[in-house]
Amino acid sequence: MTDARDYSATLFLPQTDFPMRAGLPQKEPEILARWAKLGMYQRLREAARGRTKFVLHDGPPYANGNIHIGTALNKILKDVVTRSQQMLGYDSNYVPGWDCHGLPIEWKIEEEYRAKGKNKDAVPVNEFRAECRAFAEHWLGVQREEFKRLGVEGDWGNPYTTMSFAAEAQIARELMKFAANGTLYRGSKPVMWSVVEKTALAEAEVEYHDYTSDQVWVKFPVRFVVRDGPAMRPELLLSSVVIWTTTPWTLPGNKAVAYSSKISYGLYKVTTAPQNNWAGVGDNFVLADKLAPEVMKHAKVDAVERLGDVTSKELRGLGLRHPLETFANGYYRTIPLLEGDHVTDETGTGFVHTAPGHGREDFDIWIANTRSAEEFVDALVDYETNEPAPKLQVDIPYTVDEHGALTTQAPGFTGKRVLTDKGEKGDANDAVIKALTDAHMLIARGRLKHQYPHSWRSKKPVIFRNTPQWFIAMD
Q1: What confidence score (pLDDT) does residue 1 get?
Q2: Whole-model pTM?
């Protein structure tokens, strides 16, 4: 048997001295060295002196590691734009920059701490900041050389950086202008908060993963009616509006319940249920008609009687009790019913528990209705005693701190953790659920696996919490 033939010897292809891949690994450094020797950047600036300027405002990369393909594409495209504008007759001076502040750089330093078993909170803040600055300076230098290697032309000797003292001083000067003219003010807003990283997160810093949450169906008993208003049906006065939530720990911050005038609601009376069931025979519940069967299934109710419609007009005339009223001082408050476009009958009960310190939609509906709700509550009385309803508590409480612990503004639960420092489930949910059970305000509970926001850095779940912040009025 002869050796296998080498068929490549039978291919008669043209011969060329042109190197594979154009010899770029050797050629590109030579081209860059030639540009540097020629002083091409300076020549371009001299040639463009006096022309109309074309300015590209470059969104800077973070100085926290080597560049990646996305960073490279970003810079190359900008280089194409500025070079083409220069060739079209403009003075197109590209000034690169770097973002040297914020979580991406702090997180890298914290990773180094964790690897060494070092506690960030034990490090003096100025020392921590100095380490962050040194880290940013190092990677700024590395990235600058990587961008040059890509052939990007710009003022690499004089970039802008957010951590330059001149830039920081200018930011302070501009901020004080707002303070001087009265448009800088202190307020609050719910944000996505990472307990692990101790910082607020933007939507772009969040990713969604499967997560198993506690879910509860909670009664908000009817208690208040409009003084000298139309008479309400006795069975409606003896009913409870039912809400569903997967965040029981937010209930201490409840300020209202939202409904929708587009949903059909009914009044349901429990006629058959197991003995000692949370939802007992004779209980009256206001529910969205579409969702009532599913709610009763979770509540282990065998049979109900629909007593009639509950109209939007009737809902607007009611005030509710807080379900934790008998658990601890501080929950004797009037809970108004507010109409909200975000309420649907796709899931839940047709009513939405509204804690403005723990969600954007909750915050928005509360701010939009505060004045009218305040006037409405002033017209309510206790339907049994005819005593005036408690004044509406307008302020949004800070019920959870930066460590994920419930504060003194969540009476009876102070110190309970929503999440631990490691991002694991704390004891707050169990404590709230037990309190609701003891107060006979729970009709069902369970677990729900669903998509939940997590920090893309720590991979741990985040929470929504109201935080004090500075705002600049733009109106």
Answers
A1: 55
A2: 0.79
